[in-house]
Amino acid sequence: MSADVRTRILTATLELIGERGIGSLTNRIVAKAANVSLGTLTYHFVSQEQLLGEALQAFVDEELDRLSVIAAQLEGATLSVDEALAHARDAIETRPSRHAQTAQLELYLHATRNDGLREAAARCYAAYDRVAAAALKAIGVPEADRVAPLLTGLVDGLELRRLATDDPGIDFAAALTTFVRGLGASPTS
């Protein structure tokens, strides 16, 4: 039961960060959103930093599980560019809700000022890079491990831009195709 309460609090925290931002997060708001008493919240999380750290960790753990499945499907495979782009599209489109994505970006930014959050952020980026490298290797891109962080940076940048501008016209597939062409791979079978 205690784990369920913690999970509800962490889920509510991520949603609220995505909706309102870290700066407007208070224990009272989180407790209300998680449908727990303020005392219950402070019993489980003695500080905001602990709450933020565990919220980021919970997000990262879920992402690592999801990304490990995708990476396992890609590692050792030989794919056409179109097949690799389909995998990338699936990975991007099955990402969490808009609020969760915004919370993710907020927590990453917060990690720039908080040493305790950097390790979790680094683990998540490493998992994204693993998927990107596996996809790039599958289509024959040389130095895929070195190129992977560029690809994940492109995806993060486009996602931030889409969220910030609310522009549904940002086409990840077109951007990824352009990126892959720039690497010298042909985006046809």
From TrEMBL:
Highest rank taxon of the organism: Bacteria
Pfam family of the protein (one): TetR_C_31
Q: What is this protein called?
A: TetR family transcriptional regulator
Q: What SUPFAM superfamilies does the record tag this protein with?
A: Homeodomain-like (SSF46689), Tetracyclin repressor-like, C-terminal domain (SSF48498)
- Give the record's keywords alphabetically: DNA-binding, Transcription, Transcription regulation
Q: PROSITE patterns from the xrefs?
A: HTH_TETR_2 (PS50977)
User: Which Gene3D superfamilies does UniProt cross-reference here?
Assistant: Tetracycline Repressor, domain 2
Q: Which GO terms describe its molecular function?
A: DNA-binding transcription factor activity; transcription cis-regulatory region binding
Q: Residue limits of the HTH tetR-type domain?
A: 3-63
The residues that make up the annotated DNA-binding region are 26-45
Organism of this sequence: Streptomyces xanthii
